[in-house]
From TrEMBL:
This is Triosephosphate isomerase. Substrate binds at N11, W12, K13, G175, S215, G236, G237. Keywords: Cytoplasm, Gluconeogenesis, Glycolysis, Isomerase. PANTHER family: TRIOSEPHOSPHATE ISOMERASE. The gene is tpiA. It comes from Magnetospirillum fulvum MGU-K5.
Amino acid sequence: MSIRRKLIAGNWKMNGLKAGSAELASALVANWTSGAPPACDVLVCPPFPLIVPVAAALAGSGIAVGAQDCHARPAGAHTGDVAAPLLADLGCAAVIVGHSERRADHGETDATVKAKAEAALAAGMIAIVCVGETLEQREAGRTLEVNTSQLRGSLPAGATPANTVIAYEPVWAIGTGRVATPAQAQEVHAVLRAELASLLGVESAAATRILYGGSMKPDNAAELLSLPDVDGGLIGGASLKAADFWAIVTAC
Ligand code: PGA
């Protein structure tokens, strides 16, 4: 039995409107209340404007709400950005930082991701720090080096098992239906944990959750979640359907 309680986190990305999102959240609450309590932590990360209504729909359940990004500064002249203290104030328990779509679409570097993760911690939230190699990097044999280097560069100062979660998301598996094989996932997770041991110490590394993300679905979740170093999932597409997301939750 692992000392790490698994976490299943839904990343809704830029999807949904007000009504559908409230319905999705209510369907998750119905699942939560109708069965035995899940054996894992459950989190959903809607787009910014939907955080408040989704948090309201989830209130009273054990399902937490989080955000998909935050700014590194706590306040100021940053048009269009959202500060971590506001997210915490709205009830967010966690923030995803450094997702590969943000690294690619917004030019986020490891230094940016680290600063954002530190902002999340300073606001009292969990930082979910994403790393992952592209297909080109994998084919060039650079997978382990890319992931450890992103981890070193993106890990917030003050990271502990309680405030920081790592998400390994191979870019080539995100939204493609092409999932990492159990061997591929376990290899990278084990190397990330070894890197965490050198950065934070063996005990902290052993207690830190490392999620897998990239086309995790009900039909492959149980196998991935049973791997020794896979401590949950960061779910994109399958988090938009209550039944699929809950099937992954129950696979824990
Ligand atoms: P996916 O996305 O499950 O749709 O592949 C995962 C993610 O990007 O977090």
